[in-house]
Predict the 3D structure of the following.
Amino acid sequence: MVAMAALNEYDVAILVSNDGDYKSAIESTKKFNKKIENLFFKGSLSMAIDGKCDIKRRARRIFFMKLDSLNN
């Protein structure tokens, strides 16, 4: 996330995680004036990254597709 921000490869990063270990990556990425959206799962938003991202959204079942229904 940080390396691609430094190379100006995107405008908005979407972090799909509840892990507080991403705090330093978020802070470093913000230094490149990039927006960060955090998609988190119900009941498990890390307090370490809460408030660090520009937008936070709770993941909903409709965001995902069941993979077992795909044919190979």
About this structure: The chain has a mean pLDDT of 88. The CA atoms of residues 23 and 49 lie 5 Å apart. The beta strands are 12-16, 35-40, 55-58. The radius of gyration is 14 Å.
